[in-house]
Amino acid sequence: MPWQYLSKMSSNERLAVLDEMFLHLEGPTTHMHVGGIALFEGDAPDYDDILEMIARRLQYVPRFRQKLATVPLGLGRPVWVDDPHFNIEYHVRHTALPAPGSRAKLNRLVARIMSQQLDRAKPLWEFWVAEGLAGNRFALISKTHHSLVDGISGTDIMSVLLDPSPEPPQIERDDWRPSVEPSSDRLMVEALRERLTSPGEVMRSVQSATSDPAKLPGRLIESLRAMSEWVGSGFAAPASSLNRPISPHRRFETVNVQLDDLKRIKNAFGGTVNDVVLTIVSGGLRRLLQARSERVDDLELRAMVPVSVRADHQRGSLGNMVANVWAVLPIYEPDPLERLQVISESMTDLKSSGQAVGAQLLTSLGEFAPPTIVAQASRMVARQRAFNLVVTNVPGPQIPLYTLGREMLEVYPVLPLSGNTTLGVALLSYNGSVGFGLLGDYETTADIGELAEGIEKSVAELLAAIP
User: Any residues with CB less than 8 A from the CB of 187 and at least 6 apart, and which?
Assistant: First the structure.
């Protein structure tokens, strides 16, 4: 459990450069929050019981009681500070589906929740309790700003807020009192002090790198090669109906498959589970575009695939520790086995190309850039079309989890859409199953159900091909 790591977060900690970029990417139609939908067995607990359960565990996720303070004149990145007006009832909300509470109605509720931006003046998260789901079930819907979490740290938070057994642990409420909120003058002075001292940090890094002069040329060449491969690969996504201006509103669909089925396919035909996932998504996209009467015979799409660069000692820390690679999706290939072969070979080449290393290096360099430059770079990223969609696959806990004695049966992640990307695919494995969360723009993906059906058919095709 990452409790001991999460509980060490302090106030007045400055936002990392990648986390800040997610703030700048947000706009009227682009909502930079991630989310999750968890389905539980049984009747929904009493709202007051859920409030109390979450209130007792906030001591393990201090960031959930902190908000962002902006440095005057943009002289530094924003700082996490305690919210003196924190009110848990604002963040934990209660609703019910109209009877009969179908999955379609739940998906519409999720889409509406994900269509609303989080209030930057408050801690950047919300939980919704949705009761009335058919089959004697209820749902918990989470929404957290991407500047606060990435996929891996998101699953760490889930392990804090959920229990590994039906009997919840006894947790005493902490006597939390917010620290004094820093003044604008203090924020500006601290930012200037950091700017004045950062050259010393740079020099120490250079001295460390040059401590073995024989290795320096190789390190520089390796770093420059990785950066050039990342930049050179990232700005030529093919034209597609998946890339159009989007509205503020969303649609949501889910698909659930068995993790053992994906492993059976991998073991039968080679590659990795992630290769199988990309093959399945490619098959689903092929059917979606065919249903739109688009030409797919020579179409090759590009997916941005986030890769975690979080070290073991960083597990439990919040913020984003990811780099990205651009995966080729052979939409042109009708044969699912040939599609898997193409993707497996392509991903093997990507792993050895240094793309992820290059992306991580560019992000690290951003730590030394002024906030205005980071903001301009974020807006440039939002305008270009480096990829057709995002496909992210996060490994989750493989044991049953519970809340107030109710077992979590299914879980589906949600990722944000950028300004010119109408569709995103997120996966999370949990207790032997894999939940696909499909988020689309409301105006341009009324046919998002075609993608969900296409993914299901792609899984069935590959399973049927196993000898």
Answer: 69, 70, 71, 72, 76, 79
The pLDDT assigned to 158 comes to 72
Q: Which of 33, 91, 145, 146 is catalytic?
A: 146
Per-residue pLDDT tens for 9-47?
Answer: 556 788 887 788 888 889 999 999 999 999 999 999 999
Cα–Cα distance measured from residue 194 to residue 215, given in angstroms and rounded to the nearest whole number: 30
99-131 in b/e form (b: 16+ CB < 10 A) is eebebebbbebbbebbbebbeeebbbbbbbbbb
Helices (H) and strands (E) in the chain, counts: 14, 15
Nearest Cα neighbor of 445 from 428, 427, 424 is: 424
Please count the CA atoms within 13 angstroms of the CA of 79 that sit on its side-chain side: 23
Domain with CATH 3.30.559.30 in the chain: 229-394+416-464
pLDDT, residue 11, reads 63
Indicate if 146 belongs to the active site. Answer: yes
DSSP 3-state of 411: strand
Residue 188: enclosing H or E segment and its boundaries? helix 184-209
Q: Which CATH class is domain 229-394+416-464?
A: alpha beta
Phi, psi at residue 257, to the nearest 5°? -130, 165
Cα separation, 26 vs 333, whole angstroms: 36
What residue ranges of the chain are covered by domains with CATH 3.30.559.10? 3-167
For 279, other C-beta atoms within 10 Å of its C-beta total 30
Q: Name the CA radius of gyration of the chain, rounded.
A: 23
Residues 143, 150, 309: CA angle, nearest 5 degrees: 175
Query: What CATH architecture does domain 3-167 belong to?
Result: 2-Layer Sandwich (3.30)
Copy the structure tokens of residue 180.
């004094």
| 218 close to 212: Cβ distance less than 8 angstroms | no
pTM over 0.85: no
Sign, CA dihedral 88-27-21-223, equals: positive
